[in-house]
From TrEMBL:
Residues 40-274 form the Rhodopsin domain. Signal peptide: none annotated. The keyword Transmembrane applies. Residues 1-17 have a biased composition (Basic and acidic residues). It comes from the Eukaryota. Keywords: Membrane, Transmembrane, Transmembrane helix. This is Rhodopsin domain-containing protein. Residues 1-20 are annotated as: Disordered. Belongs to the SAT4 family. It is found in: Membrane. It is a multi-pass membrane protein.
């Protein structure tokens, strides 16, 4: 098929300068997450008169940086994705750099998943290190804490591996139309549900660490309420993960997951996660 001297319709040129709802959603999600992290950092600086630099703070900064990269990569793919959809629907003519743009888009889709999971797991590790001091002097709970940390690292590695195995090969991953076999469809489903299970299981274990300890500690009711609020937002994070996965599964058509749903819910879940540590 020749792609010589293709042109884009003028209407498409005009529309490409406008933000799509998906792009607005990505930007809004990043803004919300950034504001909450800045507020959290500012509150801690005001209280201690120094830049927060404990382990839970460092992981929170890592989460924000990773989330910014996630949003940037998704944002970069949107124009190409909608161009491809328009060409497939006959609403737009192929253009000279189409093949290159699609290849770059597929590279970005492959890479962005790692940063998305790094965002979620960085938030988890931030919470886990926040709860670490509650287990100091309690050998049993300290061992449980380490077990949960190891479990969280293993599940993160598992999610990354599942991304590699979603297609039969890296060539299939970055080549349009190659990652569409029955095997690939099953692998994508496995990756989706494994990552959801790993996400929820890790969240539940992290929140279970301090539950028994909290009520036995002599801390003020205000501190207990504050921790309770973190738990509540953690539940909202799990709800966002469930909605994202169920929505993606229900939108599967011919083995392909709706990309716009993937982008929007990734932004929402990442924003909710960073807001969890904005407390």
């Amino acid at each position: 098929m020749s792609l010589e001297k293709p042109t884009r319709p003028e209407a498409s040129e005009k529309e490409s300068t406008e933000l799509t709802p998906t792009q607005r959603g990505v930007i809004a999600s990043l803004c919300v997450g950034t504001v909450f992290v800045i507020m959290r950092t500012g509150a801690r600086w005001f209280k201690n008169r120094r830049v927060p630099a404990k382990m839970e703070d460092l992981f929170m900064y890592l989460a924000l940086v990773s989330f910014a990269i996630t949003c940037s990569l998704y944002y970069a793919t949107i124009d190409t994705f909608f161009n491809v959809m328009a060409i497939a629907a006959g609403e737009m003519k192929p253009y000279a750099s189409l093949e290159h743009d699609v290849r770059v888009m597929l590279y970005e889709f492959f890479t962005v998943q790692f940063f998305f999971w790094l965002t979620l797991w960085s938030v988890k590790w931030s919470l886990l290190f926040t709860f670490k001091r509650l287990t100091d002097g309690l050998p049993l709970y300290n061992r449980i804490w380490w077990a949960v940390l190891v479990f969280s690292v293993l599940t993160f590695i598992g999610c990354c591996i599942s991304n590699f195995t979603s297609c039969s090969s890296m060539h299939a991953w970055i080549t349009a139309g190659e990652c569409a076999t029955a095997r690939d469809s099953r692998a994508k489903d496995i990756s989706l549900w494994f990552s959801l299970g790993a996400d929820l299981a890790t969240d539940l274990l992290i929140m279970a660490v301090p539950v028994r300890v909290i009520w036995n500690l002599r801390i003020s009711p205000v501190e207990k309420i504050s921790i309770g609020v973190v738990f509540l937002v953690g539940i909202l994070t799990m709800a966002a993960a469930i909605i994202r996965s169920v929505s993606l599964e229900s939108s599967v058509s011919s083995g392909q997951v709706s990309t716009t749903w993937l982008i929007l819910w990734a932004g929402i879940e990442g924003a909710v996660g960073t807001c969890t540590r904005g407390k």
